[in-house]
């Protein structure tokens, strides 16, 4: 599966329908959560997707506005509620993180709806998308779609409306194997990444560079009267500026990941506890600005397409251990040069860490579609052989 995203050019009439649908589906989403919560609290009954889907015909008779929404789009909303509760119960069972009960959403935070199977048709020649019960919408078809379209998602963002197609590729692209080279990469703040061969990738600091501009836009929002039109415009302007920063960062990650995937067969990173690191209020903004986790995920995807793989190794001691003799010594963050007291080696501390990362054994990081394929393969295996032992979900 591969996602294709395009900018839509809806008319005022179509935009009004989009907004109306999102409002109705948000109301349905919240009502479904409310019913599940109260049914368990009051009566001790667990309500599932099947029971809630059976109520839809009766609800449509009472609500004419909801009857105008495509039936599969409505059912997809209930599927989102069901998925939210499944993830909640999984987190409760694992006890590894805060469970987080599914929350109600405001109309401003419910930003998409999906046609899961039918109800849409794309005309690539005329560059038009026909949506059932809405009409035709023009789109900016920046690249052709190769494969069979499975789902169609309409999404509202700060700068307008987008469509996202989930496409199943009919013929996978031939994999060109890269040279059998391994590289260790130490990500950081002063430099975005340092490779084990000594190369460095400079940190662009997109958020830091536009921080003054963002603060000015945030002050403009704070000065406006709540619920006024001027405040809505100020909020939209602030959202667009944050969107630009996020897109710049993502574009940078894709370009650098593509370069690495073309050079190396195996790419190794540290398995960093980023959630714990951002609790340091002195470094939290710089760590979030770098976006290390997103970069590792994109690199795993690009490496898979190039026939390589990404591995994560244990992070402890990569900086403090000498890459030549293995001697450990204390290394405060303000010391940027590693000087070994045993063998006398002197080198940049990030370069030393990158060499240690390269030499360590790690476990593979699967891209999202490869991970889903492995899980599906495990399910199929269990279904065909009931006596087979349980296959655990791959750790990622």
How far do the termini sit from each other? Answer: 19 Å
Number of strands: 15
Average pLDDT value? Answer: 88
What ranges have pLDDT less than 50 throughout 5 or more consecutive residues? 374-384, 386-396
Give the topology string: H per helix, E per strand. Answer: EHHHHHEEEEEEEEEHHHEHHHEEEHEH
Can you give the helix content as a percent range? 40-55%
The Cα radius of gyration reads 25 Å
Q: How would you characterize the largest beta sheet?
A: 7 strands, antiparallel
Helix count equals 13
Spatial order of the strands in the main sheet?
2-6-7-1-5-4-3
Specify the overall morphology: elongated
Helix/strand-derived category reads alpha+beta
Give the percentage of residues in beta strands: 15-25%
Description:
With 396 residues, the protein is α+β, with helices and mostly antiparallel strands. It is 45% helix and 20% strand. The chain has a seven-stranded antiparallel β-sheet. The chain has a six-stranded mixed β-sheet with strand order 10-9-8-11-12-15, with helices on both faces. Strand 13 and strand 14 form a beta hairpin. It is elongated, with a radius of gyration of 25 Å.
Layout of SSEs?
Elements: E1 2-9, H1 12-43, H2 49-54, H3 56-62, H4 64-67, H5 71-94, E2 112-115, E3 120-123, E4 128-131, E5 135-140, E6 148-157, E7 160-168, E8 182-187, E9 191-195, E10 200-202, H6 206-209, H7 211-223, H8 229-263, E11 266-270, H9 274-277, H10 284-290, H11 292-305, E12 309-313, E13 337-339, E14 346-348, H12 349-359, E15 363-365, H13 368-384
Parallel strand pairs: 8-11, 11-12
Antiparallel strand pairs: 1-5, 1-7, 2-6, 3-4, 4-5, 6-7, 8-9, 9-10, 12-15, 13-14
Helix pairs in contact: 1-5, 7-8, 8-11
């Amino acid at each position: 599966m591969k996602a294709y995203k395009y900018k839509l050019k809806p008319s005022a009439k179509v935009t009004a329908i989009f907004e109306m649908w999102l409002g109705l589906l948000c109301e349905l989403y919240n009502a479904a959560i409310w019913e599940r919560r109260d049914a368990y609290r009051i009566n001790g009954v667990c309500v599932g997707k099947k029971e809630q889907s059976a109520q839809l015909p009766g609800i449509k008779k009472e609500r004419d506005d909801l009857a105008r929404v495509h039936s599969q789009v409505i059912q997809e909303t209930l599927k989102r509620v069901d998925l939210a509760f499944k993830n909640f119960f999984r987190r409760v069972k694992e006890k590894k993180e805060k469970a987080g009960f599914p929350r109600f959403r405001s109309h401003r935070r419910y930003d998409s709806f999906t046609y899961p199977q039918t109800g849409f048709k794309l005309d690539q020649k005329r560059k038009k998308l026909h949506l059932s019960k809405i009409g035709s919408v023009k789109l900016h078809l920046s690249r052709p779609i190769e494969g069979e379209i499975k789902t169609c998602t309409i999404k509202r963002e700060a700068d307008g409306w987008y469509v996202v197609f989930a496409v199943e590729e009919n013929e996978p692209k031939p994999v060109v194997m890269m040279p059998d080279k391994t590289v260790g990469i130490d990500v950081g703040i002063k430099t975005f990444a340092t490779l084990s061969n000594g190369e460095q990738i400079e940190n662009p600091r997109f958020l830091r560079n536009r921080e003054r501009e963002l603060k000015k836009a945030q002050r403009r929002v704070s000065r406006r009267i709540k619920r006024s039109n001027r405040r809505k415009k100020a909020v939209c302007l602030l959202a667009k500026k944050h969107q630009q920063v996020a897109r710049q960062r993502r574009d940078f990650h894709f370009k650098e990941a593509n370069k690495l995937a073309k050079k190396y067969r195996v790419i190794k990173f540290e398995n960093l506890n980023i959630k714990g690191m951002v609790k340091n209020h002195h470094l939290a903004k710089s760590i979030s600005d770098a976006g290390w986790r997103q970069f590792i995920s994109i690199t795993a995807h690009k490496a898979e397409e190039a026939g390589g793989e990404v591995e994560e190794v244990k992070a402890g001691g990569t900086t403090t251990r000498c890459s030549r003799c293995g001697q450990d010594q204390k290394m405060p963050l303000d010391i940027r040069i590693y000087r070994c007291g045993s063998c006398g080696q002197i080198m940049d501390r990030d370069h030393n860490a990158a060499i240690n990362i390269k030499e360590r054994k790690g476990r593979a990081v699967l891209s999202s579609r490869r991970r889903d394929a492995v899980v599906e393969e495990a399910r199929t295996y269990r279904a065909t052989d009931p006596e087979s032992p349980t296959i655990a979900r791959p750790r990622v």
